[in-house]
Write a structure and sequence with these properties.
Oligomer: homodimer
Strand order of the largest sheet of chain A: 1-2-4-3-5
Strand content of chain A: 15-25%
Largest interface: A-B, 60 and 61 residues
Distance between the termini of chain A: 33 Å
CATH architecture of the largest domain in chain A: 3-Layer(aba) Sandwich
């Protein structure tokens, strides 16, 4: 049995964690940001330094390759992603890429013959600061022009990122790889909850993947002077937003366990101390392991959003911002 | 009795409203912004065009003057402000300045002798996008270095604005005028509520001015992955913020009528769809005509903010952001 070089793997993880390191001890490498571009360059350097083949596809997915002697062999993909959420963790994504990289190095050093081409891959924008699963869905051929037209991170930010990485929308939409050439995909990932830790278990195997749905919920009322407009004459968009946040939370906890709901961002406008908010925009995301339960959650959340609009004399606009189906 | 030139006044109001006009039909001229600088230049031009004396003090307050023949006469100040809140109304402030300006022109044209110097004044940053009542409190000598150290609009924005207008903090703190030289201050203002309108009354006289208190309320929890952190293990700062918004509203409506409360801005961080908010910062403002009631409101609001922090397992930080005492 081969054993990896633990020291080397930890050193690689440490070096990578310095790129985009934040004061709070986290890492900020949003997809195709300057920090992500640095991480990408660093990753390429490591491949070159250790004498491995390096390749990039037209979706910006980065691959380090240890080929089989059999040119017709299929490819076993192993990897994850180097981008992070803002102030994310140092292991999420990074561990999956660098553990795969270390595995390739170990096998290369042991000069083992391979029945498959081994390919350590880092996917573009897995985290969704731009689109979400951008590189992996491009590789699978499931990315559509629609996904790119109204990305969750905003269209402008997507175009800036693509420009920075010298990528094009056309390239993204043409990055599909023939599944017949692929043997499997494997990803090592840290535990993001505390269940294994609490049960004192070293490693778990994923048996299903939750579905994710994201929406912008925007309440629209009437801007007014916060001093002279009596409370009972206001159409304060934030009143609706606050009521929705509370009731959505209670409803999901009571009716949809272990499903979860999050409001991760809020924008009020005009946005001044002394103006009653005219608009309140909420970034809503909810998750469940079952598509049926996701549908039920969404039906309830929508009707909740509309009921609250009526109570507070507001309008509400709901905009879809991305879905990932549950994989049972 | 003199009669003003209504056409001229309306034309002046129309011309001014074009500076900073927004698509929504409002006006955005935050204090010392580019648009405000344009309005200031326009106002100076009008004074020069109509042959009136123009003067600026070290707080950037703009004055147009019609002097008395008696050099020792006191000065009657009449005016308001040209700055607006974001997407504010076209008459708020502007009416007070331009009605005074039109009154000066009418008196000048009628060659009346004046027992007082007449001074039409426009105060710097009345609205508080920087500090609030900045120019008028400088003129009164009540502005302090503390007010400038932590202004409600942020220190950076204040410094940018001062630079743009070629003003200094020292100048602001030394703009006091001797009250012995002043006869009175008079301001014409549009009605900002609907009471006169509903009662079909043309004009009202202000008999008291509400006090205003502003605070930043910041809830601090724990950032976490919005998919893998169970709902009952979250310390979501927005849960606290939403509960505070709702309960503060109900409490003020039930216990402190006709006092009002407003949450005009909300900032969540890190601020992404898929991260449980670690911090939620609320711009809170409340008003009442009685200082005693303001004190009682603040005691209740603070204890509410703290109780909610406990319920949702959050910390709360409260930062004072400005007060204007009630004038009974």
């Amino acid at each position: 049995m081969l054993t990896i070089n633990t020291e080397r793997l930890l050193r690689l993880l440490d070096n990578l964690a310095e790129i985009g390191a934040t004061e709070e001890g986290g890492v900020s490498r949003p997809a195709l940001s300057e920090a992500d571009m640095q991480a990408r360059a660093w990753f390429k350097e490591q491949a070159v330094f250790y004498g491995l083949d390096y390749r990039e596809d037209s979706a910006g997915n980065q691959s380090v390759i240890l080929p089989s002697e059999d040119a017709n062999a299929k490819t076993l993909l192993v990897g994850s992603h180097l981008d992070t959420v803002p102030n994310g963790g140092r292991y999420d994504g990074a561990l999956g890429v660098l553990a795969a990289f270390e595995a390739l190095l170990t096998i290369k050093e042991a000069r083992r013959k391979l029945p498959y081409h081994l390919e350590c891959i880092s996917f573009t924008d897995e985290e969704g600061t731009l689109v979400g699963l951008l590189g992996s869905s491009a590789l699978c051929g499931t990315l559509t022009a629609e996904d790119l037209a109204a990305p969750r991170g905003g269209r402008e930010r997507l175009l800036e990122g693509l420009k920075r990485a010298n990528l094009t929308e056309e390239g993204l939409l043409n990055a599909r790889r023939d599944p017949a050439t692929l043997a499997a995909f494997l990803e090592l990932h840290i535990e993001q909850g505390t269940r294994l830790e609490e049960a004192n278990i070293d490693i778990g195997v994923v048996t299903s993947i939750v579905g994710i749905r994201s929406y912008w919920i925007e309440y629209i009322g009437q801007a007014a002077h916060a001093g002279t407009t009596p409370m009972d004459k206001r159409a304060d968009a934030f009143w609706g937003a606050a009521a929705f946040a509370q009731q959505a939370r209670d409803m999901v906890m009571e009716q949809f366990y272990p499903g979860v709901v999050n409001i991760g961002a809020v924008e009020l406008s005009p946005g001044a101390f002394n103006i009653v908010p005219e608009r309140a925009r909420l970034a809503l995301e909810f998750r469940h392991g079952s598509e049926g339960e996701l549908n039920a959650m969404w039906a309830e959340l929508q009707s909740l959003a509309r009921d609250i609009a009526q109570v507070y004399n507001l309008n509400v606009q709901i905009t879809h911002s991305g879905s990932i189906p549950a994989a049972p």
